[in-house]
Amino acid sequence: MTIRRMNLLLSGSLGLVLFLVCQVAGGQGVLTAASVHSALCSIAACQNAKPTITGFDFNSAFTPGGQFVLQGTNFNSPDGQPGSIVLKIGSKVGITVIHLGQQFYHEPYVERQTTVLGWADSHVFGQIPADISGVMDGVATLEIQRHDGWKSAPFIIHFKATKDLQILPMTDIVVKTCATQADTNLCNNWSDSSQLSIPTNLHPIPSLYGSHALFIPATSSSNVFGQDIFTLNLQNGWVIDNSYWLENGITYSGQGCNNHFADVDPPDKSVPNRAVVSWDTSCNVQYQVSLHITGPKGVPWK
Amino acid sequence: MEMRRQHEQHNFFAVRVRRLFGACCLALSLCAASSAQTAPPSSTRKAAPTSAPPSSAPQSAPGMLSNQNNGTLLQAPKTSPRGLMTPALGGADVEKMSHDQFRELPDAAAIRYRGQSMSKGTFIQQRVREQNAGPSSMARKPMMDFQTLKTQFEQKQSADLKAQNARVQAVAERLTQRLKQVQTSPEYLALLKEAGDLQRRYAAAPPDEKSRLKMRALQIHEELARRERVE
User: Fold this and answer.
1) Which domain, by its residues, includes A257?
2) Comparing C-alpha atoms, which of B225, B189, B183, B230 is closest to residue A44?
3) What's the domain count of chain A?
4) What is the band of B37 on the pLDDT scale with cuts at 50, 70, 90?
5) Nearest-neighbour CA in chain B from A93: distance (Å)
6) Position A95 confidence tier, pLDDT thresholds 50, 70, 90
7) Are residues A155 and A192 in the same domain?
8) What's the CA gap between B219 and A116, in Å, rounded?
9) Which residues in chain B are contacts of A60 at CB distance < 8 A?
């Protein structure tokens, strides 16, 4: 009995000492913004609501290396620790297959943690990894994963891939019409004369190369006209980029000609799959054009 | 007398040879004229102007490649094994030919150009060499190096992203600043203090007091969360 009383007294004293120590350690009960919710919810029966993404700041860049701000509710877990933001592109269960004639492009499933740059209960600030490639522009999702394990529903965003700039190779272009009005005519790898060929010193190798030569001296001032038509077929979000088309390399060549002229109508939105070169010569006209194409980095254009 | 007869005989043969040669030339000329008549007139070789619709493109011109949408190309004329050798006979004068006549000749055909006999293939090669060697009458448009263009393209893309990120950062900083203002406001600090007091009192509170403190704790939690919701 005595021993029991002694134990109670001891444990009571120990409890008091521990309580006082906790008071001192707790800064006399002063809570911080990070710890207050945890403390209050340990007393009250807080509803542990699921985090919900309601929107994003319109400046957000959902692109590799891009930063974003997501808005919503209940992003903070009770322990006050920040969570993570997960980006998912494509489908995990099925493979996104793009049918390209006889070929298939398998768009990979990408799941990456974004870098958390800021975290609050109603907004998070993050950055998408810069090295994501091989995926096209399109729908992706972001998910908030709180530190306590609670996850938000996937929030749909429009992901914009990093773009690449390339020259469309000659092998991916079809000569639809090569005008044969001159004495010898060459359009890319087609010619009506075995004597003509594409010069080997062209750099970069152009997408379109044409040579139309007259060897018979002109008898009148009338020139010879022609129109060469090329077609192309870009896939997977690749498009012709005409922003540098003046630098695409229309070259003129001639000697002793009255006139020689080549005018290129590169593909545009109205006729996206056709390039037309109109030429006019009394002697010899050559042209070389590099068709610039842009599209998602790491994704094939055919 | 004998010499005179021999001379007349020689003249007779010479005249016959000349006549025979003349007949040959006439036949050749007729052949050439006939060929010229069957060749399409030069006006048919004119392509439609640049502004013409694609349907009026010179698709009907002889020998033109068209509608090869499967990528199959017409076979270019092949040079015969002897194609580039100088032929034994002179051939037609290239400077008197029409474009159509010239085009219709195979590469191995003999032609004459400025007194020299050669195959059409050799002639084309020579002329192409001459044209390429001579100074261009128009300056070639300088082509910008593609790698430079590509670097510019990537730099622009990077700069655009940097500018956009800067705008997002400004938004994030504004939100952080607003949150800081909220969390240092007297009202917020008062609630924090009350939460600390409540936590202290709760441990030793009797059951009915505990129930009241619980309710108040929930109210403070919700009020703080509401204030923290900055936009």
Assistant:
1) 166-296
2) B225
3) 3
4) very low
5) 32
6) low
7) no
8) 30
9) 168
